[in-house]
User: What shape does this take?
Amino acid sequence: MKKINFIFLLLAVLFNVTISAQSDKKAEELVQKVVDKMAGYENFKAQLSYTMVNKEMDIDEKKTGFIFVQGDSYRVEMEGQIIISDGKTIWTYLVDSQEVMVSNMEEDDESISPNKILTTYNEDYKASFDHDKKYKNADLKMILLKPNDGKQFEEMSILVNENNLSLENFSVYDKNGNVFTYHIINLESNLNLPDDTFSFDESKYPDVDVIDMR
Assistant: This one.
C-alpha cells in the first residue's frame, strides 16, 4: 500500500505545490502549467509501469498496472491486487488468495484518497531543472522538486513534455534509499467510466472471503 501512496503523494505535490523564492522561475512556471492542466480533468485513467530500486538492499522490483481517479474516488489495479475506494469505504482485493479486506477511509492509515492528501499536504518546495538530463526529444524537461524541510521525502523528479504539458514519469527518493519510479505509458482524461469503477460488488464474487475491519 505504501507504494501506491507515492502516486497520491505526486498528486498532492502537483496540486498543492508552493514554490519557494529560491526556485528556478521557468521550472516553476512549467510545473504550474502542468498543475493547471491536471486540475481541469473531471477524471483520468493512467497505465503505469512501476519500479522500486534500493541498491544497498539489492532490490529491483518491477510491476505494471492502472489507476483511475475521480474526485475522492480511486481504483488501483496492480498485478494481483485491486484497491478500490468510493471516498468513504476501501476494498483491498487480493486476487490470488480470494480475499477482500473492507475498511473505512478515515480508519485506514495506509490508504488515503487523493483529495484528502490534496487538502492536507501543504509543504513548500524548491523547483529546478535537472540540466544534466538530456533527451532526444527537446520538449522533455526534468524538474527536481525538493521539500524545504524534507519530512516526506528527500527529493522528487518529474519528467514533463513542455509542448503538450503531459506528465511522462516521476520518481520519489525516500530517506531509506528507496527510489520509486512510475512511468505513465498512457493517460486518458474525462472518460465515461462505468458506474461500478469505484465500488466492489460482493455479489459478483461469491467465492471471495470478505474480511470486514470496520
